[in-house]
Amino acid sequence: MKIIYNKLLPTKGFVALNLFGVIFARKEYKPISDRTINHESIHTAQMREMLYLFFYIWYGIEWVVRLLQYKNKRDAYRNISFEKEAYLHDMDPVYLKHRKLYNWFRLV
Ligand SMILES: [Zn+2]
């Protein structure tokens, strides 16, 4: 997985951002942890099965729905189903070897 360290992406308060399978990480977090790499790899698997574009559309819509539900940006982010799957399994280094397709959908 390609990792690009930089000063701009993601915005402050976040460690890494996955854009179409490429990780952008803030320089101050170099090197990012294996857990973060695994987390972003789970997002890449989700993106592939959502044909990339639909991942971002779903992610954006669900974030708005969760924001209305939780009235808090951080809670909204943590309760997006893609994030729930990634945070639940990012400490399991072999999760992607046995992950079922669309597993995030069970967490909507
Ligand atoms: Zn995430």
Quick gist of this model?
The protein has 108 residues and is α+β, with helices and mostly antiparallel strands.
Write up what this structure looks like.
The chain has 108 residues and is of the alpha+beta class. The chain has one domain. The chain is 49% helix and 12% strand. The protein contains 5 helices and 3 strands; from the N terminus they run E-E-E-H-H-H-H-H. It has helices at 34-49, 53-70, 73-78, 81-89, 95-98; strands at 3-6, 16-19, 22-26. It has a 3-stranded mixed sheet, with helices on one face. The longest helix is centred in the middle third of the chain and has 18 residues, at 53-70. The chain is globular. Residues 39, 43, 83, 86 line the site of zinc ion.
SSE layout and pairings?
Elements: E1 3-6, E2 16-19, E3 22-26, H1 34-49, H2 53-70, H3 73-78, H4 81-89, H5 95-98
Helix pairs in contact: 1-2, 1-4
The protein binds zinc ion (ZN).
Helix fraction? 40-55%
For the report, how would you describe the main beta sheet?
A: 3 strands, mixed
Element string (H = helix, E = strand): EEEHHHHH
Bound molecules: zinc ion
Beta-strand fraction estimate: 5-15%
Shape: globular
Which structural class should the secondary elements be placed in?
A: alpha+beta
Unreliable spans are none
Termini Cα gap: 27 Å
The order of strands across the largest sheet is: 1-3-2
Tell me the number of structural domains: 1
Question: Mean pLDDT score, rounded?
Answer: 97
Question: DSSP helix count?
Answer: 5
